[in-house]
Design brief:
8 strands; single chain; elongated; Beta Polymerase, domain 2; 2 domains; two-stranded parallel sheet; 6-stranded mixed β-sheet; alpha/beta
């Protein structure tokens, strides 16, 4: 493959200072490439420590043609390559608008931020203006974070970190593709349509954050109600059942069953019982708690029939919950009720009918059924 010929710097139409900056850029490309990788690494590490999951994290080194264009338009601003702060750029795209400030705090605590040149474009909006806005920090790697005596330039050059939401990122790309930076004037009717769309995207951004906050508040409220034992006020769902099971309400029953054979209790998740319980008509944690209290003694008696006379020395922590559900299912629908429960729990199978028949026969022998 033939290697592409490098363009002479004077072919870009730059003045002497611009050409010198471009030549220095070429010499420093390995440094900028290493700086890009280092910035990505450190950003990834701080996001992981904070437990933040983002939509995307990427970085780039500005292409030569792009830098030449920048020097052609704004070359008078730059005395040297050190004055160009976005040769290396990183972008963090979040899912929610309220996470942008969290990312910004992490960037501030990780890197050295040049506040004089950093821009919060969100604050530049007029009262009646919609549009893509993001947070741009100009940063440098502090020696306390990383230092390589053989490459001090890694601590010398600034880089840019852009922080925005996924919807803001969509808008930025649309803005670019529809000609805002193409050099020609966009007709007013298109600007009006784009502005309306930008408003919808910003509204969606705000609504996603609000809904997440409301759901978080709801979960916290449900967790507190569970802790307080206010089970009738709590709907039965995955979050609330998990909180309920964390209280280990079936532990006394499991301990009593384990004592039959002096068995060990092996911990298993009770979450697979959520859908069977809901399909049997349980709607709140109060329903589950009443089922537990009403059916526990017969659930224990059923366990006596199941494991007495065996050498079983390990039982699952879900055995108490399972037997309580079996007793409840039998109370509601007899043998067919048990089969329905087994079908919900294990999936339809011809063996469920035979198992249900055997279990119902065992339950029929329990004196207080």
């Amino acid at each position: 493959m033939t290697k592409a010929k490098t363009k002479d710097t004077n072919e870009y139409g730059l003045d002497l200072k611009g050409q010198m900056i471009l030549e220095e850029y070429r010499e420093l490309l390995p440094v900028f490439s290493r700086l890009k990788s280092l910035v990505l690494e450190k950003l990834g590490e701080c996001l992981q420590r904070a437990g933040l999951i983002v939509s995307s994290l990427d970085a780039r080194v500005k292409q030569e043609a792009s830098l030449a264009g920048k020097l052609e338009l704004k070359g008078q601003k730059y005395k040297s390559i050190d004055d160009i702060t976005d040769i290396v750029g990183a972008r963090v795209v979040t899912f929610y608008s309220d996470e942008v400030d969290k990312i910004a705090a992490l960037v501030d605590s990780t890197f050295e931020v040049d506040w004089n040149n950093s821009v919060d474009k969100r604050k530049l909006l007029g009262k009646d203006t919609f549009g893509y806005m993001s947070l741009h920090y100009i940063c440098r790697i502090p020696e306390s974070l990383f230092q390589d005596p053989e490459c001090p330039e890694l601590n010398r050059f600034y880089f840019e970190v852009q922080m925005r939401t996924a919807l803001q990122h969509v808008w930025a790309n649309m803005n670019h593709d529809t000609g805002y930076k193409s050099g020609f004037e966009v007709p007013k009717e298109y600007i009006r349509s784009l502005t309306r769309l930008a408003g919808l995207l910003e509204l969606a951004d705000d609504e996603f954050s609000r809904i997440r906050k409301d759901l978080t508040d709801y979960r916290r409220k449900m967790e507190q109600l569970v802790k307080n034992g206010s089970f009738d006020e709590v709907s039965l769902n995955a979050d609330t059942l998990r909180s309920y099971l964390a209280l280990d309400p079936f532990a006394p029953l499991n301990a009593k069953i384990a004592a039959i054979n002096q068995a060990e209790v092996q911990m298993l998740s009770g979450m697979p019982y959520l859908e069977p319980m809901r399909r049997m008509g349980l709607q709140t944690l109060g329903d589950v708690e009443r089922m537990r209290k009403t059916c526990s003694e017969r659930a224990y008696q059923l366990a006596l029939h199941q494991i007495s006379g065996t050498d079983l020395d390990i039982i699952a922590s879900t055995l108490g919950l399972q037997n309580v559900c079996l007793v409840f299912a039998a109370d509601r629908g007899g043998e067919k009720g048990i089969e329905f429960f087994l079908n919900c729990l294990n999936g339809p199978s011809r063996y469920n009918a035979a198992t249900a028949e055997k279990l119902f026969e065992q339950l029929s022998k329990i004196h207080d059924m």
